[in-house]
Write a structure and sequence with these properties.
By secondary structure, this protein is of the alpha+beta class. The protein has 3 domains: 6-69 and 118-209 and 310-387, FAD/NAD(P)-binding domain, CATH 3.50.50; 80-115 and 210-306, D-Amino Acid Oxidase, Chain A, domain 2 (2-Layer Sandwich); 428-434 and 449-536, Alpha-Beta Plaits (2-Layer Sandwich), CATH 3.30.70. It has helices at residues 18-34, 62-67, 117-130, 192-200, 275-282, 289-292, 339-358, 369-374, 378-386, 389-392, 397-410, 451-457, 475-486, 490-493, 524-528; strands at residues 6-14, 40-44, 58-59, 80-81, 84-90, 95-98, 113-114, 134-137, 141-146, 152-157, 160-162, 168-173, 177-185, 212-221, 231-237, 246-252, 257-265, 296-306, 317-318, 321-323, 470-472, 499-502, 511-514, 534-536. The strands form 6 sheets. Strands 1, 2, 8, 9, 10, 13, 19 and 20 form an 8-stranded mixed β-sheet that branches. A hairpin with a 2-residue loop joins strand 19 and strand 20 (321-323). Helix 1 packs parallel to helix 3 (117-130) and helix 1 (18-34) runs parallel beside helix 7. It is globular.
Length: 550
């Protein structure tokens, strides 16, 4: 094994999303104010900052206002204030607009902005670098490093230039060890290292299992007469049945662009359900299709998101490190926003680390001030008020909606009880004999599209001759359990066509083929696989999607 080089910093941040970048900026702000110079390094597995960032996105500017109050003067890419909004309940052929004055306060968007979160992260990175933060895109953190006492020492980036069978190619470069007094993990939802840390340190003891959704998004350039800058639309109902949680969004940005997306809770039961195909047929609804007629689809992507809320938050600090942002699960589900909460969590962790470093602490201990202060802030209050909304939808769309109105309007989120989720998402599928197959319409190539043309638009690229980053713990389980009991649900829940059942010329001897080069890093397989047989690990840094404006 080649000896790895090492670099040492005061703080290492894994992931250049809103949480990681907000943490980096806050650390350097505190340094400047106190005349100190703690070193901060951010590593990012995407080819550039923003390449792997995907969100709706409507931004609540609360945390941005706190972090950089002069963001407008600094020309942040936050240009389109919400000017109008609509919430629709859809049937197959029509829909009813819910009166805005009856919507829960969390669903109101006046004062918010429609943005590209990827572009906001690119801008945040430029602000951080101007303050002295070192940012290295294209480097995937593949391993947690530990001290002799078991505390986190830092991370190591993955080796580059390995072939599919693990042999070293001519382009081989060993990974680099990055050592720090404290390491911030900000990989986003279902981070591979975060998953390992939660298990290693027992961070979920006393908390419920996280529950997730899969969000699939397209960016369109629409005809001028269809464009309403600042207009926000959310829907619930069709094409999902009443027992399946989910809904859609349409956000009108600047430059004739409309972001359209669909989110489905990954606790759905029917193994024949395809989130990708549900999204495509949603666009055919008579209240939705006219927006896109005469337009052009320009980008596509998918990403899992946390929906568990407060009762699913793990312990946030552990010896030598912290979880921040969606790595921890700070998204406010009923508000349909997580950027502001992610940024604030990063800022709080930064303040705790700065205080520890200023006291001369050498790292390896727990930054307990971070979770303590988290519980005292508006982030915790938001998540507390939101905690009962998502679990209420296990009763179905209509009872869940009724309960949400009572909980959010009557009790203002302060009901004297806390509902439980009750199970992990991978436990919810019923067997194929108990489920009804779903007939999806064929894509028309105008409004609806197949998976492969969509993956093409995501600019996804992986070096094909590298170890497969979707690892089966037991290859037999894919056939003996997943195919036999559930009719291979991975071929449907993956929004990128990664998983495929292939047979020999006689139609026998099925096997699971993994087209890892298609992967858009959404993490759905790692979450939804019914036997948890699929483990998502990082591929070579710089691979995956390259989202230009998502």
């Amino acid at each position: 094994m080649s000896e790895r080089e090492s670099m040492t910093y005061d703080i290492i941040i894994v992931g250049a999303g809103p949480a990681g970048l907000a943490a980096a900026i806050r650390l350097r702000q505190l340094c400047e104010a106190a005349g100190k110079d703690f070193s901060v390094c951010v590593i990012e597995k995407g080819s550039e900052v923003g390449a792997h960032i995907l969100s709706g996105a409507v931004l609540d500017p609360k945390a941005l206002n706190e972090l950089l109050p002069d963001w407008k003067e600094r020309e942040a890419p936050v240009h389109t204030p919400v000017t109008s909004e609509q919430f629709l309940f859809l049937s197959e052929s029509g829909g009813v607009a819910f009166p805005n004055f009856l919507l829960p306060p969390a669903l109101h968007n006046r004062g918010n902005y429609i943005i590209s979160l990827g572009n906001l992260c690119r801008w945040l990175a430029s602000q951080a670098e101007a303050m002295g933060v070192e940012i290295y895109p294209g480097f995937a953190a593949a391993e947690v490093l530990t001290n002799a006492d078991g505390s986190v020492k830092g991370v190591a980036t993955g080796d580059m230039g390995l072939g599919q069978d693990g042999e070293k190619l001519a382009t081989y470069q060993p990974g680099i060890e990055l050592h720090a007094k404290y390491t911030f993990f900000a990989e986003g939802c279902r981070g591979s290292l975060g998953k390992e840390l939660i298990e290693r340190f027992g961070l979920r003891e006393g908390a419920e299992a996280q529950t997730y959704g899969i969000g699939i998004k397209e960016l369109w350039e629409v005809a001028p007469e269809k464009h309403r800058p600042g207009h926000v639309v959310h829907t619930a109902g069709w094409p999902l049945d009443g027992a399946t949680y989910g809904g859609s969004f349409l956000y009108h940005l600047e430059n004739r662009q409309v972001a359209v997306g669909f989110v489905i809770g990954l606790d759905y039961k029917n193994p024949y359900l395809s989130p990708y195909d549900e999204f495509q047929r949603f666009k055919l609804h008579p209240k939705i299709r006219p927006v896109f007629e005469g337009g052009k689809r320009i980008s596509y992507g998918a990403r899992a998101l946390n929906e568990g809320g407060l009762q699913s938050l793990p312990k946030l600090a552990f010896p030598g490190g912290v979880l921040i942002g969606c790595e921890a699960g700070t998204l406010n589900m009923p508000k349909i926003k997580g950027t502001h909460t992610a940024m604030k969590s990063g800022m709080l962790a930064a303040e705790a680390a700065f205080a520890a470093l200023s006291e001369g602490r050498e790292g390896g201990d727990e930054l307990n001030a971070y979770p303590e202060n988290f519980r005292k802030t508006w982030v915790h209050d938001e998540l507390y008020r939101a905690r009962n909304v998502r679990p209420a939808f296990r009763w179905g769309l209509w009872l869940g909606t009724l309960y949400t109105g009572i909980d959010q309007i009557l009790f203002r989120g302060r009901a004297p009880w806390t509902l439980r989720h009750g199970h992990a998402d991978h436990e919810s599928l019923v067997g194929k004999t108990e489920a009804q197959p779903i007939a999806y319409p064929k894509p028309d190539g105008v409004i609806t599209f197949d998976r492969m043309s969509s993956v093409f638009l995501s600019n996804t690229n992986h070096e094909e001759n590298q170890p497969v980053h979707l690892v089966l713990k037991d290859s037999r389980v894919a056939i003996d359990v997943n195919l036999e009991r559930f009719d291979a649900p991975e071929t449907r829940y993956c929004p990128a066509g990664v998983y495929e059942i292939v047979r020999d010329d006689a139609g026998a001897n099925p096997r699971l083929q993994i087209n890892a080069q298609n992967c858009v890093h959404c993490k759905t397989c790692d979450i939804k696989d019914p036997t948890q047989n699929i483990n998502w690990v990082v591929p070579e840094g710089g691979g995956g999607p390259n989202y230009p404006n998502m």
